[in-house]
Amino acid sequence: MNLYQTPIQYNINHVALEKKEPLRNEILDFVHAISQHKSPLVSGHDGVMALKIAEAATQSYKKGQEIKIK
What we know:
Layout: H1 22-35, H2 44-63
């Protein structure tokens, strides 16, 4: 028995993803939410948090340290 080559079992599955432009999808969802008087999939709070995370990630990379998100 070779301790460095352990038997591996795996299953390969094909995952098909539709290629769609994310910003266009978000805008279409927003327009649909307004016309149907429903909440959009992405809220304003979600958008603000995404921007804070992206900004903190950029600062962290530049400074080489952890950045707290408020």
